[in-house]
């Protein structure tokens, strides 16, 4: 990708990094990323990816902005209450960087629509807040061989992992969290969430996504990062691939 003087100036702090340079920034600008969810995690993910120059971003969320969201979902203004979250986040991203393409989708993706969205991008960021969506996104990423950056946050605790179906040693989300139909799950509406926590986890998701598309550093594949916000402590655990996994097991045979 050729960059004019304005783009070289806009992305100069990336270009100054030896690991990124003009070539890495060009890869970022040529990439397409799907963000599933435009809430607490999706807001910082979208803002950072947009500011960094990801060329095309697809944002999917069927929910609308509520007053209770504004404590942590930093891309949504008070004037956006009642508006679709994908639209609100897209507007905030465009205000930061009008040079990129941002495509809001006003639905919680499922079935063929999910597969079509996943198949049309280079990488997927799961910023959803429920197990059903996470497992559906994971299945689509495995089926279509797309890397997945997964994050979650509740209370004062968060987690982050990267799954890459193209790597034989990579687990998938199901290897780490087997799908249990009756599995109880906590939502922010019931358990609460510390406002900056979603920013911490969302920013790390954005970093992993940008590392991947720029082809720099080592992705968090085969590992789970656990963040304890109350103690300011991080732990990284190894996550092996499950050879009998019903989702990704056959892809590595």
Overview of this protein structure:
By secondary structure, the chain is an alpha/beta fold. The protein has a single domain, classed as Rossmann fold, CATH 3.40.50.720. It has ten helices and eight strands. The chain has helices at residues 5-10, 12-15, 21-29, 42-52, 85-96, 111-119, 131-144, 173-176, 188-191, 195-214; strands at 32-36, 56-60, 101-105, 123-126, 148-154, 157-163, 223-228, 233-238. The protein has an eight-stranded mixed sheet, sandwiched between helices. The protein is globular and about 50 Å long. The mean pLDDT is 93.
Keyphrases for this structure?
253 residues, alpha/beta, Rossmann fold, eight-stranded mixed sheet
Secondary-structure blueprint of this entry?
Elements (H helix, E strand, L loop, with lengths): L4 H6 L1 H4 L5 H9 L2 E5 L5 H11 L3 E5 L24 H12 L4 E5 L5 H9 L3 E4 L4 H14 L3 E7 L2 E7 L9 H4 L11 H4 L3 H20 L8 E6 L4 E6 L15
Parallel strand pairs: 1-2, 1-4, 2-3, 4-5
Antiparallel strand pairs: 5-6, 6-7, 7-8
Helix pairs in contact: 4-5, 4-10, 6-7
């Amino acid at each position: 990708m050729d960059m004019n003087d304005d783009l070289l100036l806009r992305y100069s702090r990336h270009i100054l990094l030896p690991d990124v340079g003009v070539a890495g920034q060009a890869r970022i600008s040529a990439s397409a990323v799907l963000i599933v969810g435009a809430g607490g995690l999706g807001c910082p993910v979208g803002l950072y990816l947009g500011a960094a120059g990801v060329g095309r971003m697809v944002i999917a969320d069927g929910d609308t902005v509520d007053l209770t969201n504004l404590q942590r979902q930093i891309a949504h203004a008070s004037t956006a209450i009642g508006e679709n979250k994908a639209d609100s986040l897209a507007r905030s991203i465009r205000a930061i960087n009008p040079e990129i393409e941002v495509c809001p989708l006003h639905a919680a993706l499922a079935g063929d629509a999910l597969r079509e969205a996943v198949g049309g991008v280079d990488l997927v960021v799961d910023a959803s807040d429920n197990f059903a969506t996470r497992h559906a996104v994971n299945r689509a990423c495995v089926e279509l061989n797309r890397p997945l950056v997964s994050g979650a946050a509740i209370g004062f605790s968060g987690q982050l992992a990267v799954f890459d179906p193209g790597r034989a040693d990579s687990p998938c989300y199901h290897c780490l969290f087997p799908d249990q139909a009756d599995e109880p799950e906590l939502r922010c509406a019931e358990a609460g969430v510390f406002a900056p926590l979603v920013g911490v986890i969302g920013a790390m998701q954005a970093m992993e996504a940008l590392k991947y598309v720029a082809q720099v550093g080592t992705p968090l594949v085969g590992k789970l990062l656990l963040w304890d916000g109350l103690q300011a402590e991080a732990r990284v655990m190894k996550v092996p691939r499950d050879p009998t996994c019903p989702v990704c097991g056959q892809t590595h045979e």
